[in-house]
Amino acid sequence: MFGLVASIPSPSSGAITLGPLSIHAYGLMIALGVIAAVWLLGRRLEASGAGTREDASSVAVWAVIAGVIGSRLYHVVTDWDLFKDDLGRIPQIWRGGLGIPGGILFGTLAALWAFKRRGIPPAVGLSAGAPALALAQAIGRWGNWFNQELFGKPTDLPWGLRIDAEHIPAGYAPGTTFHPTFLYESLWNFALCIVLLRIDKKYTLRPGRLFAMYLVGYATGRFWVEGLRIDPAHLAGGLRLNQWVALVVGLGALLYLIIDWQRHRNDVPGVPVGPDQLDDDLDDAEDHGDGPFDDLADEPDDDLADEPRVDDSAEDPDERPPSVEPAPEADEPDLRESLD
Length: 340
What we know:
Shape: globular
Order of helices and strands: EEHHHHHEEHHEEHHHHH
Distance between the termini: 120 Å
Structural class: mainly alpha
Strand content: under 5%
Mean pLDDT: 83
């Protein structure tokens, strides 16, 4: 028997009321996630010198529109039984039902096009957007909490989620608490965002690799969280459909990282050198005989090798041999007359 001694309550309503204005909390969470993602993407583009905050906003418009369409289509296709008798429900996204895999696919394709259109290398743009995407998902997942949906198996853990009686699936007694899978995935994505930012700050990665790392990280978290859920889903080989998708995406991204590392493991990343560091390097090179002009000092000029040398080692100037001057050629015209 699952008790209510300690549990997470669910909101009494899926809408937030501000005076006469009623806002669907599910859509609000998605909007807040998009705003946070655009802010982070803009900062990262400016920090890398690849773009501006205006570029981030422009790319986000296309990526969000495509992402919402893709995620809704994914949900409709994979849960067609919910819509085949009520087609008017398809555009009602505020009632829930956005498939993240479809959103990532459509949103990424749109972002690639938008980055190229703004003059930003697509791979660089995706690397800048990887942590931002994880942040958006971390915030957007809270919409499931307001809708009291997509929770996990029953649990008596202190953080079990309390669900209203009308939202409890058939076969479970009122008062049952469930795994708050929305919370698990939200925390996972927050952590993924931080890890990606740390990796990008500490290491110099080839463009595109950070986005592949995001895919590996997200797919890993989604795989185990999906395994806890009890909402209806297509099953194959003991796994839910979204688990199979996460498995394919995660392994595909991991394979890309391995192949890309193998192809470029001997590459030497460029290291920017400042003026102070350049001076220090030149001093060290000269001390070790590796200065940029040492070759000139070691190899005498051919034109000067045949010239008679003056021995200036004698202390008395009178003892030095007279310098050798070339004799004037005969019948040499006086140039001073032609200059007059």
